[in-house]
Amino acid sequence: MALRNHSTITQFILFGMSDDPHIQVLLFVLFLGIYLLTLLGNLTMILVIRTDSHLHTPMYFFLSNLSFLDFCFSSVTLPKLLKDLLSEKKIISVEGCLAQVFFVFLTAGNEACLLSVMAYDRYAAICHPLLYGQMMSYQLCKGLVWGSWSLASLNALIIVLLAINLDFCDAQTIHHYTCELPSLFLLSCSDISINISILSFSTIFLGLGNFFPIFFSYVRIIFNILSVSSTTGRSKSFSTCSSHLITVILFFGSGMLRYLMPPSGSSLDLLSSLQYSVITPMLNPLIYSLRNKEVKTAVKRTLGKYSQYFRH
């Protein structure tokens, strides 16, 4: 993999979060708990949505895909972080680092597209309830999900192919807990102006390109909800949309802050990365389950079925 360009550097040292052994143990316990909660929450959402026929609707089809993405997203960075917190040497090969960059862009880009699709689904359900079945057919839903994967894969491939051509000379320490492209730029002795321009374009295209459809969908939704005379109907619509809005704000706010701001190697870079790649995947199943009566009811039904099965 472009050994010519990386002949002087074969591996990177990850700075991590702390060099104090006691703090590292505490961080290991904290992030192990976060990772287990993320896996349990998202796998539970996938299982409940797949097994409960009441949730076989476009909204929950997209939600199960979001849970799968969050499961993958957290698994790109957290296992390596947990390993490093128990290791004296926090190293990663150049190839491993670039692979991590690719999968971060693949999962994050895919999630940005999927959140936009979910906003359109809510717009169709609330603003055009009589036409909802035609507007959100099963074939269209599958096409939108595959389109999200295709767009995110193409974007990630372009980004990582550009990163392969970077020269890394003497600096080996990445001032971060994981490999992210902005952190790699700080170590490169190549001309990174083209890479920064393409990264900025990619962030704007996938970030703002998905955020604006979400924004306009919710403007229409809010006007539609305000025109509803029934207080019950209005509160139900707001409840359905609020979970998605919370997810959008958490994900897009921290993600765009990380990739549009100049990399500095500061704690702000680390915190914004933690927010969109670690905290948000853990919170999403909680946000959607705690604020959604249908999901809570389905979880109880599913747990009841499995408890009866194990009794017999």
From TrEMBL:
**Protein's UniProt keywords contain Membrane:** yes
Keywords from the UniProt entry: Cell membrane, G-protein coupled receptor, Membrane, Receptor, Transducer, Transmembrane, Transmembrane helix
Q: Where in the cell is it found?
A: Cell membrane
**What is the topology of this protein in the membrane according to its UniProt annotation?**
Multi-pass membrane protein
User: What cellular component terms from Gene Ontology apply here?
Assistant: plasma membrane
The protein's role, per its UniProt record: Putative odorant or sperm cell receptor.
Q: How is this protein named in the record?
A: G-protein coupled receptors family 1 profile domain-containing protein
